Fold this protein.
Amino acid sequence: MIILGIESSCDETGVALYDTERGLLADALHSQISLHAEYGGVVPELASRDHIRRVAPLTQVALQQADLALTDVDGIAWTAGPGLLGALLVGAGFARSLAFALDVPAIGVHHMEGHLLAPMLGDEKPDFPFVALLVSGGHTLLVAVEGIGRYRVLGETLDDAVGEAFDKTAKLLGLGYPGGPAVSELAKKGDPDRYRFPRPMVDRPGLDMSFSGLKTYVLNTWQAAQAAGDDSEQTKADICRAFETAVAETLAIKCRRALKQTGMKRLVVSGGVSANRTLRTRLTEVAREAGGGAFFPPLRLCTDNGAMIAYAGAQRLLAGQRSDLDFSPRARWSLEDLPPIDAPA
Ligand code: KG4
Ligand code: ZN
């Protein structure tokens, strides 16, 4: 079964083709980073318009990559939420009309389920059950995963998502957008002993998290340095290092706690921030201590892409699930509302 996957929830248009027998056949991506960079963040209306421009040509690119024709497609999966409503509507409208025209089944996919299952596209695939840490620009969640669609949210951020905290830190230090890669690059040159930032909410029981205080810590530290006449690149690097270490340590403590609480041994880490090297190293240690392993998506599938949507949609289409023609995208949508794979959608 060949599934066309379409992602358009935020600032990346992704179109991929996944074959349930042969695996990933094509994965085309257009990033809008340069479009939003001058505004320092995603402008929703510009994002929607750019998705409109890109989605059809990108579908042609994916078909060419796989050496297939549209008529070879057996089903279509698109991101139905959560995300920017206008951006989601573009993907949904395109995918739903194409499925109607081709007379093939279609399914709306939960964006975070796409991230959660993305490690299945890598060389080392986790067996169920596992704890998933989902860290992206819009979400930070710890989830107990018993199977596809069997999700229990264990904890989440009460304010900023981890990716958002990286992006805001970068903005405060004048490092541009998106912030994650820039902050982690500069952190490599930072002195690990110069600053120590707090590990938020680790002294409280439970698995909820909070990252907005860290951003304030960045601001105060940077302003104090500047007031003392120091606005050097080295100081920026030292702040990035302290910030990244605090994030990685906080997430390590929460993941260790989640593994202990659930009795699970495997840890899946996914979403844009799972591309972060420091975090990967730290969480690999945590999962090893728990007696299981840590699983990540291949690096290029950590951030938004069509492949993860094609994969998640393929699993649900294979199980006979379908979305009706009048299915609407959702800006907000809990993972816990998804049906298990063996139930009707
Ligand atoms: O999953 P994603 O592509 O989009 C959302 O669903 O939000 O995640 C994007 C986020 C951004 O906040 C970006 O700064 C962050 O992932 N990110 C990183 C790294 N690469 C991307 N954060 C830390 N380190 C990285 N290497
Ligand atoms: Zn995402």
Q: What stands out?
A: The chain has two domains: 2-117+301-337, 129-296. The first strand starts at residue 2 and ends at 7. Residues 10, 136-138, 163, 166-167, 178-181, 184, 271-273, 275-276, 303-304 surround KG4 (ligand 1) (CB under 6 Å).
